[in-house]
Design brief:
464 residues; cell membrane; 2% strand
Length: 464
């Protein structure tokens, strides 16, 4: 039994397998020929593996930058990192986390089938991270055993369906009704950025629609632009840190190291874009089978990096603006006497870049810069506010990085502190009401329209 649980949870924690399985089920429902079954199943798997490989290159080339900034500017504090804190938590709560993960996916499918929240969350590693957070904060709230697993599984499954729905109106604007939803637990930050951008900017003046003159034609290539920006950032930070520190992390010359690292980062971004095209080319059409036969009107909720291709320049601008916001937030935390949160380059790139895309599509260039900057400040304050709850469990100097993780940790922690376990049950009850509410209001829509296979292929050809 333990082996089966371990095997299943490992499958559900791997987005590549999830996407392949879901795609296969959809194609079988459509009664696709064998050749289509093979390619339609493998391409989403290969696409996500390519996306993951690109993300790995990005992370590997971003990680040294945090240490360089610490050394160069003599800053000491906490760098938020999901993977780091999960690796610590797994040693204490491994079985509970895996059980919550598996039950959460089952709840997500049941909610998509029987309610009007038709979103199937496919970003397995983020589900794993949130399962880990729930196991940690529920244990701190004195829940144990099956009670912890059921509550955590329901919270995970419900939020996996509700979070894409909250901002689907924004997601449809970003993707031009591309038949996908946001499946990443930085979602509240992206929707907040879209809302702010719509208030302060104009969608007509966006980075996505900007024409670049022939003189600056090389900037039309996002890979080149990203490489130039990152080389400059690395050079400046490395010069401030000094060659003595750089020699502790590499044997290369400081300038050579900065150039190669910045350009390798750009290569990672290019790999991500290629993986995204493979995923969208076959996953979304296959979902038509699930939508028609198994879970009517279902929509795949996919990783935030999938949205990068909709406004590549905004990804870079959003990242830089978010990082600057993180620096300002760090200074504000110091002034308030709170724990210093050193901007983590990985969350600021993925969360800040995605916020930039959403903000650019809703509020243009001005909205992109302002909203991503504000989002960066939140990425400093929210992890700092989450630290005390995690510190009680022995996770001192570690904290989750992304928006939704911090919000859920703070909400559950504060609710238990002030009102006890009854508050956690009330939170579950509120989520049940949210899931049932659309049945009482016929005009309420929590699902976006999906495209037909032909429409999707036409859109894909136009995009290319």
């Amino acid at each position: 039994m333990a082996y089966i649980l371990s095997f299943l949870t490992e499958i559900f924690s791997q987005p590549a397998f999830l996407m392949g399985i879901i795609s296969l089920v959809g194609l079988l429902a459509l009664r696709s020929p064998v050749n289509k079954l093979l390619t339609g199943t493998l391409k989403p798997i290969l696409g996500y593996l390519m996306l993951s490989a690109g993300a790995g290159v990005i992370v590997a080339n971003l990680n040294p930058l945090g240490g360089i900034i610490e050394a160069g500017f003599n800053i000491r504090g906490v760098i938020p990192n999901n993977e780091a804190i999960v690796s610590v938590a797994q040693k204490l709560l491994g079985v509970e986390t895996m059980s919550i993960l598996l039950l959460g996916f089952i709840f997500n499918l049941a909610i998509a089938r029987f309610t009007k929240y038709k979103y199937i969350f496919l970003t397995g590693h983020h589900s794993f991270f949130l399962a880990c957070l729930f196991s940690a904060v529920l244990q701190a709230a004195n829940f144990k055993g099956w009670e912890m697993v059921i509550i955590g599984g329901f919270l995970l499954g419900a939020w996996s369906a509700i979070s894409p729905a909250i901002g689907q109106r924004y997601t449809k604007r970003v993707t031009e009704d591309g038949g996908i939803a946001m499946g990443h637990f930085g979602s509240l930050g992206y929707y907040l950025s879209a809302w702010i951008a719509a208030k302060v900017g104009k969608a007509e003046n966006s980075f996505a629609d900007t024409e670049i003159s022939e003189k600056w034609g090389f900037l039309r290539d996002t890979t080149v632009t990203t490489g130039i920006v990152m080389v400059v950032i690395y050079l400046v930070c490395s010069i401030v840190a000094g060659s003595a520190y750089i020699s502790t992390i590499t044997e290369q010359n400081m300038v050579i190291f900065s150039i190669l690292t910045g350009l390798q980062f750009a290569v990672g971004v290019a790999i991500v874009y290629s993986g995204v095209r493979l995923i969208l080319g076959d996953l979304v059409p296959a979902f038509q089978g699930i939508s028609q036969k198994l879970i009517p009107n279902s929509i795949p909720a996919v990783d935030c990096a999938v949205f990068f291709t909709f406004s590549p320049t905004a990804v870079v601008i959003g990242f830089i603006s978010s990082f600057i916001g993180g620096l300002v937030g760090m200074l504000m935390l110091g002034g308030l006497g709170m724990a210093l949160i050193i901007p983590g380059m990985v969350p600021h790139f993925f969360c800040g870049g995605t916020s930039g895309v959403f903000a650019d599509k809703l509020g243009g260039k001005k909205g992109c810069i302002i909203a991503s900057f504000i989002g960066g400040i939140f990425l400093a304050f929210l992890p700092a506010m989450l630290l005390p709850a995690l510190g009680n469990l022995g996770f001192e100097n570690s904290t989750f990085a992304d928006f939704d993780f911090a919000v859920w940790g703070i909400v559950i922690g504060e609710a238990f502190t002030h009102f006890g376990q009854i508050a956690i049950y009330l939170i579950c009850f509120v989520l049940v009401l949210a899931l049932l509410a659309p049945f009482a209001f016929k005009s309420v829509k929590v699902v976006g329209d999906t495209l037909s296979y032909d429409e999707l292929m036409e859109k894909d050809r136009a995009h290319k």
